[in-house]
Structure formats: structure tokens, C-alpha cells
Amino acid sequence: MTFHRALAAAVGFLAAPLFTLHVQAADLKVFESNALKTVMDQLAPQFEKANESKLVMAVGTTTELRGKIEKGESFDVAIFTKSALDDLAKQGKVAAEPLVPIARVGIGAAVRKGAAKPDISTAEAFKRAMLSAASVGFVKQTPTAANMKVVFEKLGITDQMQSKIKLLDVVVSEAVSKGEVEIGLTQMSEIVPFAGVIEALGPLPADIQTNTVFGAGVAAATNNHNAAAALVKFLTSPPAAAVLKANGMDPS
Question: With CB atoms counted within 10 Å of each terminal CB, which end of the chain scores lower, N or C?
Fold first, then answer.
């Protein structure tokens, strides 16, 4: 399915009656991964309208958001990597129920709109593209950063890439669109929505790809458990699945 057809499908789903739980309205503080920002920008108004609750978003990397939780910052719902949520549940900071996977997504590569598009369809082609690029960027302290270290080691190009790598403090779409890096590497969900300013080279080849599972969980200490649980359940509903798919993610 093309991006435009998937987007049309998402719009169709959202035009249908919304998934609703009848719970008391509440203001929910939501910790949200960068990878889910575009998805939540679309889904939050739908949830708010259907449930008469307001979502207050705090966006960042999983590492940043997890750190805030471990330091005791209050929140109601966390939406980031499932592995981090599971660890926080073991610490008693995230409730064991509901704690669900919502989508998985692989790493992709992108270049500035109108730039030459190197082939990355095979591991060898990807290796050539990396060695030919003047610069390659990804956000530091993210699953992509950790996974790319493994990929470069597997391809035997760790040393050659040292001078090319730029660890970013801004989202990859911004750095690529401004020409700050030639090739950006990030989750496909952070590439697909920005087709107007960057161009996807595609996902990494299957033999060097790593998929990250994102999930949603409720704060163990929330005073708004029912409303928070309703949001988590909504993120596994058909309308949410359509939006996730349209934005480059594979709904769980």
C-alpha cells in the first residue's frame, strides 16, 4: 500500500465512530517518544473529543523520558519503547496493567528533498552508501544510535564511519532538511510523515534491520487510572492502528 493510500485509509477510519470508554474526564500528562509524535499529533484530538479528556504531551527520547520517571517526575501515561516500560514496571513506576505493545518499527534512511538517492536495498549497497556519504546523522541516546553501532560493526566499517557520524540533538527530519547531514538514520515513523522536505531511501535491508517495539503504559502513581487506561486501550484500537500504519509503523 502506498503512503497516500495508507493515509487515506487512516482518514477513513477516523471518520468512523471513535473508540470510546466512558470514563471521568481528566487532564493526562503523557510522556511521548519522538517516534510517536506525528502519530499522537493526529490521535490526541480524536481521543480528547471522544473521552472529554485533555492530553498534555512531553516529547523526547526514551532515554530522556525514562530518566524523568526514574527521578520521580509525575506522569499519567508513557508511550515509548516497550523494553523500557517493562523495566519501569519492575521498578514499580509503571503499572503492570494495562501495559501493551502498540507498534513495531524499523530503521530507515533519508536524504534531503531533491538530493541524489543512493541505493540501500542490500547490505552491501547500504555499506557503499554509508562509505560514500559525507555525513551520516542520528539522534544520540536512542535505539537507532545503539543499533547502528551494531550494524556498522557487522559491516566492518566502524572505523571508517567515525569521522562521518554526527550525533544529533534535533530530530533527524530537521537535520536532513536543513542539510546538516547528508543521510539521516532514524525510525521509519520519523521519516514517512516528512515526505515534503526529506526523501526516504527506504528501510534498512532485512539482514541488518532491527525493529523496535513501542508500547504504552499507565503510571503506577496516577490519580487518573481509568482515563489513562482508556488512552492505552485507544492506542490499540482500529483507528489508532490505521494512523500508525500510515506513519510507517506496524501495529501490534
Answer: N
pLDDT score at 25: 64
| Domain boundaries, given as residue ranges, for the chain | 3-105+211-251, 107-208
Q: Please give the grid coordinates belonging to residue 162.
A: 567515525
The answer to whether 199 touches 115, Cβ cutoff 8 Å, is yes
Residue with cell 506525528: 38
Interatomic CA distance for residues 46 and 15, integer angstroms: 10
Q: Residues near 140 by Cβ (< 8 Å), separated by ≥ 6?
A: 167, 168, 169
CATH 3.40.190.10 for the 3-105+211-251 domain, yes or no = yes
Q: How far apart are CA 219 and CA 138, in angstroms?
A: 29
pTM over 0.85: no
Least reliable range by pLDDT among 38-42, 49-53, 156-160: 49-53
Strand ordering across the sheet containing 183-187:
165-168, 136-139, 183-187, 107-112, 198-203
Same fold for the pair 3-105+211-251 and 107-208: yes
> What is the longest distance spanned by two Cα atoms in the chain?
57
**C-alpha cell belonging to residue 113:** 528533498
Which tens digit of pLDDT belongs to each residue from 139-151?
A: 998 999 999 999 9
Task: Classify domain 107-208 at the CATH topology level.
Answer: D-Maltodextrin-Binding Protein; domain 2 (3.40.190)
217 with 95: CB under 8 angstroms?
yes
| CA-based torsion, 130, 135, 136, 140: positive or negative | positive
